[in-house]
Amino acid sequence: MSDRIVSALTIAGSDSGGGAGIQADLKTFAAHRVHGLSAIAALTAQHTRGVSAVHAPPADFLRAQIDACFDDFRIAAVKLGMLANADIIATVADALRAHAPPQVVLDPVMVATSGAKLLEDAALATLKRDLLPLATLVTPNLPEAELLLGRRIADRAAMHAACRDLLAAGPGAVLLKGGHLDDDAGTVIDLFADADGVRELVHARLPHSAHGTGCTLASAVAANLCRGLPLHEACAAATDYVHRALLGGYRPGRGDVLVLDHI
Ligand code: PLP
Fold first, then answer.
1. Distance, CA 112 to ligand 1 centroid (Å)?
2. Contact 115/135 with Cβ under 8 angstroms?
3. 104-106 and 74-80 strand pairing
4. How far does the centroid of ligand 1 lie from the alpha carbon of residue 193, in Å?
5. Is the dihedral of CA 118, 123, 129, 131 positive or negative?
6. Which listed residue, 87, 122, 251, 256, has the most CB atoms within 10 A of its CB?
7. What is the value of ipTM here, to two decimals?
8. What would be the CATH architecture of the domain defined by 6-259?
9. Strand order across the 50-55 sheet
10. Phi and psi (nearest 5°) for 256?
11. How far is the CA of 14 from the centre of ligand 1 (A)?
């Protein structure tokens, strides 16, 4: 059959609270009118106030989920989120090498906003070695970029230098999220960097703490790639989408964090 529409595949963790992870990814794909597939790489017991337990599936069962998706669907973009440990990362890297999807968006999930650890320390080296070179785009926030590079990123100049060094580690492009840098001007500045240079994406800073923004941003980029946007435009549209989803955010639990509005 040659008339299959394109699909986006998320390989990530499940958030029982419905705000982040696979649940946010599938809502984002649906909001972009893109068919969403999922391979669950980790399960979390979680609500708006934190993560109480994490369970990783056997690596061969994760591989079976990924293979099932590639065996049937026309996958234009893969989004990678919480991958939990080195075994899972190696399995994902093998599967990506075998199936060679056209675009891979890597959200290098390490620590939740609540402080919960979502990637074992020992897995960081595997992520850098095995996954960064397979990524079309990597989307770290500042704490994740600091762990990837092993140094502090304290200002805008350091962010520009970090983009260059992350690019040298192998991904096709970098979207470095600046939300953790407190800017007096009331803006959040994300940097998009590829072989052509570094460009700024600027939004007004909103006075909310939210859950699932990183997952949503990377999924929105993947969905925009499925819709045929070039990478820089896919990133610009995705940052706009997260900004809008934050404006409509709501509090479904007792925690003081917003869950995004996926419209
Ligand atoms: N839980 C899962 C399964 C995730 O994939 C993520 C995403 O990064 C999080 C929690 C953390 O989300 P946040 O840091 O936005 O609370």
1. 5
2. no
3. parallel
4. 24
5. negative
6. 87
7. 0.91
8. 3-Layer(aba) Sandwich (3.40)
9. 50-55, 35-47, 6-15, 74-80, 104-106, 137-138, 173-176, 187-194, 197-204
10. -90, 50
11. 9
Does residue 84 have its Cβ closer than 6 Å to ligand 1? no
pLDDT in tens, the chain (263 residues): 568 999 999 999 999 999 999 999 999 999 999 999 999 999 999 999 999 999 999 999 999 999 999 999 999 999 999 999 999 999 999 999 999 999 999 999 998 888 888 999 889 999 999 999 999 999 999 999 999 999 999 999 999 999 999 999 999 999 999 998 977 679 999 999 999 999 999 999 988 889 999 999 999 999 999 999 999 999 999 999 999 999 999 999 999 899 999 98
- Taking the domains of the chain in order of start, what are their residue ranges? 6-259
Ligand 1, pocket-test mutation among 38, 49, 118, most atoms within 8 A of CB: 118
Task: Decide: 128 in ligand 1 pocket, CB within 6 A.
Answer: no
pTM exceeding 0.95: yes
